[in-house]
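Handout, section 3.2

Students often ask what a structure token actually looks like in practice. Rather than define it abstractly, here is a full record for Phosphate transport system permease protein. The first block is the sequence as you would receive it.
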Amino acid sequence: MPPTTEKTRTRGAPQRPGDRIFAAASTGSGVLILVILAGVAAFLVSEAWPAITAPAEDIPGDDSFVVYVWPLLFGTLLSAFFALLIATPLAVAIALFITHYAPRRLAAALGYVIDLLAAVPSIIFGLWGVAELAPRTVEPTRWLEENLGFIPLFEGPASATGRTILTISLVLAVMILPIITSVVREAFLQTPRLHEEASLALGATRWEMIRMAVLPFGRSAIVGGAMLGLGRALGETMAVAILLSPSGNVSFNLISSANPSTIAANIALTFPESSGLTINVLIASGLVLFAVTLLVNMGARAVINRRREFSGAN
């Protein structure tokens, strides 16, 4: 007879009713998520197909669907990219300050305030961007145009209202900041204490200890948190709809009033007055956003899995 291993003993051991119920509930929840995701994808494809196959003259703007959706997709990716570029380093810095520099009471209060930002409705951020942030960016954008106008991002003409892609990127950065910070902070708190103490005992400064022990351990969490924030920025609707005045242009200029809109904002603004094939066109643009978000998450998962073997977590 083959020797009895720990694995065979675990398989043959009787399970309690609670264990069986919990295992079934967990499995059912996972399958349900997949079913819902497949249902959403099937709905989007079926409703978007008439718009994808429709002749160009039936699409809004009398162009093909690709020409219709490209400026929206460009605006979505542009604003989300710069929001992520602003928010990720700031979130990592805040997480490091909370976990390794701030006194305990201050760290607890600051963590609570950062988490509270996630509970603020997006429409509030949009109103804040219109009323407070946009007017305050007028003079800085003029300075950027005068001094850095040779860079395509700041070639101008600068907007007189401040309602630009740069402003909406700042608003989106504030919105995704608590998401990234929370994920990264929890990862930094789980860094093995022995790793930190060993680095300090060998003569490393606090920053050298963070660079050699904390950051490698939390690398996967940084990537995962950034991708969660990117997903939020890609799908943001009300703040963009309130703040931007879209013109349909495709431009890297961040300070001009000729702004490309985003897919989510365009759907929110256009859907109530749409009918017939226009609704199918909007759903098709939603399918594009769904595919982009799915690809972003798949890419993030691939990066995390690739770096796992090099992470201090192992």
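Discussion prompt for tutorial groups: Residues 83 and 173 are 4 Å apart (CA to CA). How would you have guessed this from the sequence alone?
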